[in-house]
Amino acid sequence: MIEGRVTCPPLYAVIDVDACAHSGHDALTVAAGFQRAGVSLLQIRGKSIGAAALFDLTRAVMTTGNARVIVNDRADVARLAHAGGVHVGQDDLPPSDARAIVGPEPWVGLSTHTLEQATQALEEPISYLAVGPVFDTGTKLTGYDAVGLDLVRRVVGLARPRGVPVVAIGGITLERAPRVLEAGADSVCVISDLLRGDAEARAGKFLAALGPNLRRS
Ligand code: 3NM
User: Fold this and answer.
1) Region for 185 from its dihedrals, namely left if φ exceeds 0, alpha if ψ lies in -120 to 50, beta otherwise
2) pLDDT tens digit string along 7-54?
3) How far apart are CA 200 and CA 78, in angstroms?
4) Which of 1, 72, 112, 209 is least crowded, fewest Cβ atoms below 10 Å from its Cβ?
């Protein structure tokens, strides 16, 4: 069950603080560049930074454009920052608790890695459902093998009739991204491939390949 239907744009860019540091990028500069390129949905992921730094980065990103900004893991930070939502994983607060913290309007997203998890997720008060890792990824040790486009198709088959958008994540590159949308995903969620070279230019290439990224509700 969801609080209200949302529309996810084709590109959902994740600003991962560690991935930015490892590739020589400044997270805030990347976020500003993505928004200049036209990215309308961003996630701030800071596994190695504390809540205060995550809050500061979230607020700073929110001043660099008008993308919806989702905070990874921390519903408390999302609420205090008046962010656009929170994204939780299987080991974080359950979506119902995250929803209780952020309130009815901000988005609550949930990561899933199996058909069973996706089925259960659809009973939760989520705004969108993430499925992955679609392909092998070096960015996160998910503990799950690559699920492939077949699971994306099956999850879309479950979620679409319920009006829940599906976001695909894990190992998605500029080359692979169109195939992921063709499999039925509403969005591709990307970390490392957006940091290849000039991040703003790379985001522009993704948007050109995937279509418009207009911000909607
Ligand atoms: N979550 P990249 S895979 C953060 O399967 C994350 O839930 C995943 O990074 C999941 O685009 C992943 O560099 C890493 O592969 C995505």
Assistant:
1) beta
2) 999 999 999 999 999 999 999 999 999 999 999 999 999 999 999 999
3) 25
4) 1
pTM of the model: 0.95
The CA distance from 174 to 205, in Å, is: 8
Ligand 1 atom at shortest distance from the alpha carbon of 147: 5
Domains identified in the chain and CATH numbers: 11-209 (3.20.20.70)
Q: How far is the CA of 136 from the centre of ligand 1 (A)?
A: 9
Peptide bond into 125 cis (omega under 30): no
CA of 13 to the centre of ligand 1 (A): 11
Half-sphere exposure of residue 100, counting CA atoms within 13 Å on the CB side? Answer: 4
* 8-state DSSP, 192: G
Q: Which amino acid is at 105?
A: E
Instruction: Tell me the one-letter amino acid at 85.
Output: G
